[in-house]
Amino acid sequence: MAERLAEKSMTEEERLRLLLAAAPSLIAWFAENARVFPWRKGRTPYMVLVSETMLQQTRIEAVLKYYDRFMRAFPTLGDLARAPEEKVLKLWEGLGYYSRARNLKKTAEICLREHGGELPERFDELRKLPGIGDYSAGAIASLCFDEAVPAVDGNVLRVLARLFGDARDVRLPQVKKEAERTIAALFRNPSGERPKSPATPAPSAKESSISPARFNEAVMELGETLCAPKGKPQCGLCPLKDVCAAHAAGTEEQLPFRSAGRERVKEEKTVWVLTCGGKTALEKRTEPGLLHGMYGFPMTAGKTESTEEAEEKLLARGIVPLRVEALGAARHVFTHKEWLMQGYLAETAAPLPGLNYVTAEELEKTYALPAAFRAYKEQIREIAAQAPCASRQ
């Protein structure tokens, strides 16, 4: 099927012509069907930055509560720039991909220092900021400043693959680059005038200018709703059904074509929940890679099969436990790795050097613990020992 469709693939000129015909209907559909989200009310560049950063690899439903809490804590870029990193990470806890939160704070600090506490207006300047790639820069520049730049993510690529009947692998960089070129060409006004601003009425089919803000947001919305990735697309409700090549060919459920990603590497880990005097030890990960800079329970590579083996491993490290208990298995999936974990509780008479011992309340309110450790975090209050803990030197 892919080979047959590839032979009939459109030229860039044909794609542009089709997109020009489709854009007015798409924009009109969005004007009537746009969902209500907090970042769309009184939209500011900062609101778009925060929402788009949170939405990377995360469902909208999961983001909503985090967005509201985050914006109440840091209502401006300046507030975020001046906040302690641990507070930022704690409010991010559960969203995962913590480098996003760190980059967000770094961007806020740069904007406070170099841009008067505001985000730059132009795509090229936004692109220089930490964590802001082509898509996020395009979203901010087009949605907030109506700069004639595309904002192409997986949702947009899916819509275009179906609209154009394109069976090429959407993972290929050239496919995305071509989509960006086609959308950028859509925004060019033959008269040489700037595209209309978001405040003006939606363009009619006879007008040559297409608002970047209106189009980019409309195509994103279509890809997140009717032209969704899972299940059968709702073509009967789609504003593009009459011009969609995949719908005409009956291939909308087979497109877009996406090659298989690389297989996840499985790693066995032993998680050590070390307690002393009702407090639990946390370790800040300093090695490069997953969860770098995050607090978590101490962890070693390899599986530990029993409490007897766990005690032997602790003794080999010079740690004499008062008791050792098995906490059970847990599994956590990252993008390219999968951790298969076995946890053990080990109580000691004195705190171990190099670890940070915290109360259950501090763990809940102060420290951001990655989701990988969630299964063990939930047991902290029940397993925390009550024996007195020697003073730390």
Structure description:
42% of the residues lie in helices and 12% in strands. The chain is built from 17 helices and seven strands. Helix 3 packs antiparallel against helix 9.
- Estimate the strand proportion: 5-15%
Helix and strand content put the structural class at alpha+beta
Distance between the termini: 69 Å
Per CATH, the architecture of the largest domain is: Orthogonal Bundle
Tally the helices: what do you get? 17
Q: Uncertain spans, ≥5 residues at pLDDT below 50?
A: 1-7, 190-208, 384-393
Number of strands: 7
Question: Which topology of the largest domain does CATH recognise?
Answer: Endonuclease III, domain 1
Main sheet attributes: strand count, strand direction, barrel closure: 7 strands, mixed
Average pLDDT for all residues: 88
Q: Would you identify the CATH H-level superfamily of the largest domain?
A: Hypothetical protein, domain 2
Give the CATH class of the largest domain.
Mainly Alpha
Following the backbone from N to C, one meets helices and strands in this order, namely: HHHHHHHHHHHHHEEEEHEEEHHH
- Radius of gyration from the CA trace? 26 Å
Helical proportion? 40-55%
Shape: elongated
**Domain module count:** 2
